[in-house]
């Protein structure tokens, strides 16, 4: 087992550090950098008029991100929690139903995909495991090629899912910014490596390890990052953590915000979305909450933050992966300081095969 960890204390931190390599594997052979195109020939002609994603947990957060990408490309898309989808299947029409599942064995996701298939839908799975049940049962399989993930808490497979969903959208739609996204994806492994080498997330973890609760906020593409930041924190530290759409804070959760609840705000770019999130940061700062900004520095959010976890300026799609890496390190180091069983958190299994 120690050899399997290659000198790291836990599989999770090893897998966090494997992300640059995992991303390179995911992108290799799919991206033609000269032509600025993505090759999905093995999947046949999919050209969907609509997309429904089904997934659970971390994979659901990737699905939310994926649905956002399709909508940006003008294709109606929605992400559903697989357990809810199977209970009340929405009208599918001729939408493509995409399951996102690292293991390809999650019972809720399989059940949702089967329900869709029963209604005549075309199905595709985005998975890490060749030969998994989902890969065998779906019409098409897109492999994220992240390599085996042992830690119960997903890390490298989440970033590879995000990269894979970019490739899927770019390959299936005619986006104006395809070349720009491909360039950002190409730079992602190097940018991620620098964050892994230089992040001050461990120092932030040290400061807030005794906090009563942790809140994560983000907007648009950064909303799934906030949800994932909170899920990771819950899973491996056993602390109360919640992710919110930044704009929802004032509709209730703000009542929970105190000087004992650090708020982690993902603020990328300097568009209207980012500026509105800075407004939400001001609201929590005014309630004495410690603020940690995960930002590329394009807004003045640092003025309201106690700490900044910096990411380089890049495309917002790539920024989501980079921001998430800081949050993975934050949860990991908090859990390590609290002495938690990081690779096998209580009550959780790597693959959930019951509904
Ligand atoms: C992730 O950290 C969790 N262990 C969990 O939410 C997981 O993502 C979920 O159970 C779905 O698993 P899957 O991707 O294998 O379908």
UniProtKB/TrEMBL annotation:
Transmembrane segments: none
Domain of life assignment: Archaea
Cell compartments where the protein resides: Cytoplasm
Reactions accelerated catalytically: D-fructose 6-phosphate + L-glutamine = D-glucosamine 6-phosphate + L-glutamate
Keywords: Aminotransferase, Cytoplasm, Glutamine amidotransferase, Repeat, Transferase
GO molecular function per UniProt: glutamine-fructose-6-phosphate transaminase (isomerizing) activity
Keyword RNA-binding tagged: no
Residue numbers annotated as active site: 350 (for fru-6p isomerization activity)
SIS domain span: 40-178, 204-345
EC numbers on record: 2.6.1.16
Subunit structure: Homodimer.
Function in brief: Catalyzes the first step in hexosamine metabolism, converting fructose-6P into glucosamine-6P using glutamine as a nitrogen source.
The protein, known as: Glutamine--fructose-6-phosphate aminotransferase [isomerizing]
Organism in which the protein naturally occurs: Haloarcula saliterrae
Gene name as annotated: glmS
């Amino acid at each position: 087992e120690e050899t399997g960890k290659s000198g790291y204390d836990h599989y999770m931190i090893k897998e966090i550090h494997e992300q640059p390599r995992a991303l390179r594997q995911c992108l290799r052979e799919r991206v033609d950098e000269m032509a600025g195109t993505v090759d999905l020939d093995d999947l046949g002609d999919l050209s969907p008029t609509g997309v429904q994603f089904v997934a659970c947990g971390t994979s659901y957060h990737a699905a939310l991100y994926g649905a956002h990408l399709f909508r940006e490309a003008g294709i109606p898309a929605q992400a559903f929690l697989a357990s809810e989808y199977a209970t009340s299947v929405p009208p599918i029409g001729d939408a493509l139903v995409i399951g996102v599942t690292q293991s390809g064995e999650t019972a809720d996701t399989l059940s949702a995909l089967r329900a869709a298939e029963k209604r005549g839908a075309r199905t595709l799975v985005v998975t890490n495991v060749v030969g998994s049940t989902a890969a065998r049962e779906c019409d098409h399989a897109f492999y994220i090629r992240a390599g085996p993930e042992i830690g119960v808490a997903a890390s490298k497979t989440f970033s590879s899912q995000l990269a894979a969903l970019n490739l899927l959208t770019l390959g299936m739609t005619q986006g104006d910014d395809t070349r720009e996204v491909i360039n950002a994806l190409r730079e992602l492994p190097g940018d991620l490596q620098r964050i892994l080498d230089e992040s001050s997330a461990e120092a932030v973890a040290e400061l807030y390890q005794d906090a009563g609760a942790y809140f994560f906020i983000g907007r648009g593409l950064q909303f799934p990052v906030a949800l994932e930041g909170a899920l990771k924190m819950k899973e491996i530290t056993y602390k109360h953590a919640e992710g919110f759409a930044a704009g929802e804070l004032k509709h209730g959760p703000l009542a929970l915000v105190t000087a004992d609840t650090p708020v982690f705000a993902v603020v990328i770019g300097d568009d209207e979305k980012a500026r509105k999130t800075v407004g939400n940061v001001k609201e929590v700062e005014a309630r004495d909450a410690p603020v940690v900004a995960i930002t590329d520095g394009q807004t003045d959010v640092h003025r309201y933050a106690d700490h900044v976890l910096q990411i380089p300026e890049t495309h917002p799609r790539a920024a989501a992966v980079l921001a998430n890496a800081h949050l993975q390190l934050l949860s990991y180091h908090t859990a390590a300081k609290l002495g938690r069983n990081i690779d096998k958190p209580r009550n959780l299994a790597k693959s959930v095969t019951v509904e």
